[in-house]
Amino acid sequence: MSSHTTPLVESDLDLAERILAPDGTRVPNPQLDPYVADVDAAQLRALYRDMIVLRRVDSEGVALQRQGQLGLWAPCQGQEAAQIGTARALAPQDFVFPSYREHGVLLARGAQPGDYVRMWRGEEGSAFDPAELNVAPLQIIIGAQTLHAVGYALGIQHDGTDEVAIAYFGDGATSQGDVNEAMVFASSYRVPVVFVCQNNHWAISEPVGLQSQFPLAGRAPGFGIPSMRVDGNDVLACLAAMRWALEHARSGKGPAYIETVTYRMGPHTTADDPKRYRDEGELERWRRRDPIARVEGHLRAAGELSDEQAAEAQADADVLARDMRAACLGMVTRPALAVFDGVYAEPHTGLERERDEYAAYLATFEGA
Fold first, then answer.
1. Domain shared by 186 and 313, yes or no
2. What stretches of the chain show up as alpha helix (H) in DSSP?
3. Which residues carry out catalysis?
4. 244 with 359, same domain?
5. What is the pTM of this model?
């Protein structure tokens, strides 16, 4: 598959491959259609249900942070199709290396309610068991997970197993050296890895047009990596693109790269105020491309989604959100000074000095 090399413009999304138009109508696509020919109405409803659940998980995460139960949360509203569509294409044995915003990937991999919030609450250990979900711990350092994914893929290649490593990252990460270095190694050694760039148009406050004058998928061929650029608000297109990429990598042809063109509807994190740098008119235009409304419109027009089925999906979402909240509130947070425990096997004077300084700082709040 060749990527577009047309300069970025306002109508840029129209250059991406799609199966479902923004109004939900089916658009013939000879490249993508074969990869979703098996998807029937029941399977599409399942994708719709996952997207509904993900949006509810996301809103609950925001609410918990606003109520002081989480230190931070990275919202993913608007990116439901990009995450659910790609993650549902994975085989159970595939291993994912996510960034901090991939709540939908966790959902698709079978995360438990507490798994979504444990890291954001600052609990010790990983947010979940990586071996159970086949998902590495959420990566905060921008782009670092791409190196880990390529290293894991080298191991897959050495062992000769039927696995693929997947690295998720955003448009901002493409400006990081780690991502480019990972692509060099992946191409040179033809390892089974898929790079998934969720282009949500904003690297915190920096627009994608400032980072790149051409579509991000256009960079991959320069490394010898085939790429595809799809409408990230079209769950079927994302599913198809990921199936294509996985097929390529799993068959021994080396790495593949997909760019899902989507939009971050909320803030970068709950510590961010996008109104300071983002035009409300732009946000409104993307609201009209809502990924959930798109697939719902398609299903309803086909007579494949009733009010009862939509209500069931929302009920499932509410149950998970309730369980997620209960899990969060039920966590026993360790004392703040416990952060110093287990750093070294033996006592360390420098660490003890830092601990004493922090204890003195905490003491200033006593009785406040």
1. yes
2. 41-66, 80-87, 103-108, 118-121, 130-133, 144-159, 177-189, 208-211, 235-250, 280-287, 291-301, 307-329, 349-363
3. 264, 268, 277
4. no
5. 0.92
